[in-house]
Amino acid sequence: MEFKILDLFCGAGGFSYGLDKNKNFKTVLGLDYDTNAINTFNKNIEGAVGIVGDITDEKVKKHIVEKSKKLGVNMIIGGPPCQGFSLKGKQLGLDDPRNFLFLEYIKIVSEIKPEVFIIENVRNLLNASDGYFLNQIKEKFTKIGYILNTGFINAKDFGVPQNRERAIIIGSLSRSVPLPTGKSNEIITVRDAISDLWYLNSGEGLDASDYINKPQSEYQSMLRGEKVYNHKATNHSDLALEKLKMVPPEGDKSSIPVELHGKQKFATTWSRLKWDEVSPTIDTRFDTPSNGRNSHPVLHRAITPREAARIQSFDDDFIFTGPKTSVCRQIGNAVPPLMAKAIGETISNAYMDKRVEKEDYSAYLADSFVFVKELKKNNIKVNHIITDPPYNISKDNNFTTMSSPRKGVDFGDWDKKFDLFGWIKDYVEILDKNGSIIIFCSYLYISYIIDELKEVGIDVKDVLVWKKSNPMPRNINRRYVQDMEFAIWGVKKGAKWAFNKPNNVPYLRSVFETSLVSGKEKTEHPTQKSLKLMKEIIEIHTNKKDLILDPFMGSASTGVASLELGRKFIGIESEHKYFQIAIKRLENSRGE
Ligand code: SAM
C-alpha cells in the first residue's frame, strides 16, 4: 500500500522527512502557522506543498480537507500541541480549553478518514490524570472506526543520539499496527554524531541565510561542496563565556567549587553533553547555555543548530531557514527523522501482504497481542481457542554435570520474557459463549494461568495431561524425567460446551499418551506438537465445521489437525520462519 501523507503542525518537517525515507510513504501536504518553518518544510520535503495557516480557522481547515481529498491523502501525521494535562486535580482532558487543538485534529481525521494516523506527543499525553485523557481519545477515535495502538518509545532506541521519550498513538482502519520496538542496547553517542564537525568558537561558522531565497535545486548543488550549513555558533556574552569556561569538559555546574557559584552566577542549570553518552532531550532553547544540559562537551559554547540537528538525526543536506531563534525552535520541536522512519517501517510491515485467507483457514504473520484488535474490530467470533503459547521456560544454561553436556532449554527469543497472561482477556472476548479455551503451559505456571482465566470469567473445567511415551532424558541422576506437559481447559460461565465422549468407553481420562513428533511430520519448529495429540483433543472438545483459533500457531499443528478433522482454523504467528512452515503445512492438509 502506498501512503500519501498530510503532516499537520508539520514544523520543519522532521516527521515527514523520516517517513519519506521509506518508499511506501510520500508526504504531499503540510500545515503550520509558522512561516519560517513552512519555508524550511518546502525547501526540504520534496514534492510536498507546505501551507501557512491556522488550523482553527474554518477557511484554512476547509482548504486543507479539500486539498487532502484531491491529493488522495490516506495518512495523517502530527502531534497537536497540548498542555492541559492536569489542572490541579480536575480531570478535564479533552474538555480543557487548552486542548482545543486536539479536538481540531480529531475533526480533521473524521472528515478525511485516512487509513492511518499517527500522533506523536509528550509522554504526559498518555498517563495524565491516570489515563483519563487517553481514554477520552480512545473513545473518540474508536467511535469513528479506528483501531488504536498506543505506548511510549524513546528516540535513542532507533539510532538517534538522544534520550527523547515520546507518547505515540497509531490509529488504523483495517490493520492493527504495532509500535516499533528498537534496540535499547545499541546506542549512537554524541561523539558519533558531532565530533567530526568543525570545532568552532563562539560566533564562528556558517548559517543558512545565504540560501534562503535560492531555489531548492540550486542550493542543493551548493551543498555538494564541503561546507556544512546551520553550523554557526552563537555569539555568547562575555559573562556567559566566563561561566562556560568554569564548567569542566563533559561536566556540569555541580563540579564547580561552591565558592565560585557566586551571587546568582549559576542560578540555573549549566552543563555539557558527554561524548560517549546520548544527549538529553534537545528542546527549542539549546543555544542558551544557562537553560540547558546541551552545551558542547568541551568547547566554550552552546551547540550549533547543525549539531542539534545531527543529535535529532537530520541529514546535513536538510537545511533550516529563518532567524536563529526560529531555526532552534524548528529543530527542538521536530520528530527525529530516524524515529519517524522506524514508525514507518512497522506501518509498512503491517500493511504488507503477509496473510493467507482461504475458505476454511486463515493464517496471519502478526503479533497476536496487536492483531487481536483487528479481529475485534471485524467482529470475528471463534468457536474455540486451542493454543500452545510460549511457556517462558527458555534460558541459557548448561548441564555441566552430565557426561555429555548439552545446551539447556533454549527454544529461541520468542520463549523468553513472554507475557503469559496479557493476551488472555482480549481473546476470551472473541470466544463464542459455548466455546472451549485450551491453553498448553508449563507446570510452573498452571495456577497463575488458572487465576487469570477465572479473572476474565472462565470456568476452569480440567487440566489435560500430555504424557510423552518417549521423553527426552536430561540430567537423569539428579531429577525426574520431564515426561509430561499440561493444558488447562475452561469454558465461559453458563456455556453448553462440546464434549464428545466416544460411546465405546465408560469415561474419559484426561491423560493423552503420544510420542514426541518425529519422522516426516517433524518440521524445524523446536516445540512442535504431534498431530495425533492435537487431533485427539480437537475431536473431544469441538464439532465439525467449528472455527478454531490458535494465536500462537507455530508450525500450525493445531491448524492441520483442525482441517484434517473438518474444522475451520485461524492461526497467528509472529516469526517469519515458522509462519512459512505453517502456511505450507496448511496448504497441504486434506480435510475429511
Ligand atoms: N503448537 C505449535 C506447533 O505445534 O508448531 C508450537 C507453538 S510454540 C510453543 C509458540 C509459538 O508462538 C512460537 O512459534 C512463537 O514464535 C509464537 N509467538 C510468540 N509470541 C507471539 C506473538 N506475540 N504473536 C504471535 N505468535 C507468537
The strand line-up of the biggest sheet is 10-11-18-17-12-13-15-14-16
CATH architecture of the largest domain: 3-Layer(aba) Sandwich
- CATH class of the largest domain reads Alpha Beta
Q: How many beta-strand elements?
A: 18
The termini sit apart by 38 Å
Uncertain residue ranges: 397-407
Outline, from the CA principal axes?
A: elongated
Question: Total domains, how many?
Answer: 3
Q: What share of the residues does DSSP label as strand, in percent? A: 15-25%
Approximate helicity band: 25-40%
Please compute the radius of gyration using only Cα atoms. 29 Å
Tally of helical segments: 19
What is the name of the CATH topology of the largest domain? Rossmann fold
Bound ligands = S-adenosylmethionine
Overall mean confidence score, pLDDT: 89
Give the helix/strand class. alpha/beta
Largest sheet: 9 strands, mixed
Q: In CATH, what is the homologous superfamily of the largest domain? A: Vaccinia Virus protein VP39
Which characteristics define this entry?
single chain; 592 residues; alpha/beta; Rossmann fold; DNA Methylase, Chain A, domain 2; 3 domains; nine-stranded mixed β-sheet; seven-stranded mixed β-sheet; 19 helices; 30% helix; 18% strand; elongated; binds S-adenosylmethionine
Give a concise summary.
Helices cover 30% and strands 18% of the residues. The chain is of the alpha/beta class and 592 residues long.
Descriptive account of the structure:
The chain has 19 helices and 18 strands. The two termini are 38 Å apart. About 2% of the residues have low confidence. It is elongated, with a radius of gyration of 29 Å. The protein has three domains: 199 residues, Vaccinia Virus protein VP39 (Rossmann fold, 3-Layer(aba) Sandwich), CATH 3.40.50.150; 122 residues, DNA Methylase, Chain A, domain 2 (Alpha-Beta Complex), CATH 3.90.120.10; 236 residues, Vaccinia Virus protein VP39 (Rossmann fold, 3-Layer(aba) Sandwich). The protein binds S-adenosylmethionine. S-adenosylmethionine (SAM) binds next to helix 14 and strand 18.
